[in-house]
Design a protein that fits this description.
The protein is of the alpha+beta class. The protein is 52% helix and 14% strand. Strands 2-4-3-1-5-6-7 form a seven-stranded mixed beta sheet, with helices on both faces. A hairpin with a 2-residue loop joins strand 3 and strand 4. The chain starts with a helix and ends in a 13-residue tail after the last helix.
């Protein structure tokens, strides 16, 4: 009897731990409705295991299995990314050695700010993603691989309306431009103001699904905006934008030079 209770306790701990991990995952994805639907079916299945007949139990187990498979298919890109992070020692949540020292990240910050400020003055539209972790491969696959050091000149060339790569988003990790012309999912949030265009909706959409900072320059007004965690903030100053970029990069503000942009 004692061993039976022991296994029950172990099963309960494993299930609770799994449910907590799933809650964190779906909360980050902003898909908590899917999580609660899964909980409802799980609770029904557990109740039926105790009180229903074998046929009903088999049906509910089949439904639960189908639901788990459907979730695995729907979130296969995220699951693949998780396993890549586990299996690869280079896939870390910091920029570390692979994506620049503090000095290189500070230099990349200055280049991004310079490019954004210049494009805003000239009403050149831009969409730049800064990712502290590995972004989904399917996003990078929609664009053109670059793998070049961040520079203001390169960013301005990319978003030049006469350049072939100006459509879509630039993805930056650390001091490297990973890809350009990437196409992003648009937000389905109906409460987003109609004043913003496709770039802003794409910025909101990608930050609803991924842990990135999206920087947007409006082609019509030159207004600088950022999106993170599905929330759009408009009328950003260069000083506020600098703080946001440094926060993504994790740069120690006490060691920053006090260089100002003209």
């Amino acid at each position: 009897m004692e061993s039976k209770y022991y296994f029950l306790i172990v099963d309960a701990i494993i299930m609770l731990f799994s449910l907590v991990l799933m809650f964190i995952f779906f909360r980050k994805k902003r898909h908590l409705k899917v999580y609660f639907i899964f909980l409802v079916f799980l609770a029904i299945t557990i109740v039926f295991d105790f009180y229903a007949d074998n046929i009903t139990i088999s049906i509910m187990n089949g439904i639960m299995f189908s639901l788990i498979v459907a979730m695995a298919v729907a979130y296969q890109a995220d699951i693949k990314l998780i396993f890549q992070k586990i299996s690869s020692p280079r896939a870390r949540d910091s920029f570390g050695d692979t994506y620049g020292s503090d000095e290189e990240l500070q230099e990349a910050t200055d280049h991004i700010l310079s490019a954004v400020q210049s494009m805003a003055k000239r009403d050149i539209g831009a969409l730049i993603l800064l990712t502290p972790t590995s972004i989904e491969q399917n996003i990078l696959d929609t664009g053109i691989k670059v793998n070049a050091n961040v520079s203001s000149q390169l960013l301005e060339c990319i978003f030049n309306t006469k350049a072939p790569l100006h459509d879509g988003a630039v993805v930056i990790k650390g001091n490297k431009i990973l890809a350009t012309s990437c196409f992003l999912p648009l937000t389905g949030n109906v409460s987003v103001t109609k004043e913003v265009g496709t770039r802003h909706r794409a910025a909101i959409g990608i930050t609803e699904e991924s842990d990135v900072l999206a920087i947007v320059v409006s082609e019509e007004t030159g207004i600088i905006s950022i999106a993170k965690k599905g929330v759009l903030t408009r009328y950003m100053t260069i000083e506020r934008l600098k703080e946001e970029i440094e926060n993504v990069y994790g740069i120690n503000v006490n060691n920053h030079s006090k260089k100002r942009l003209g």
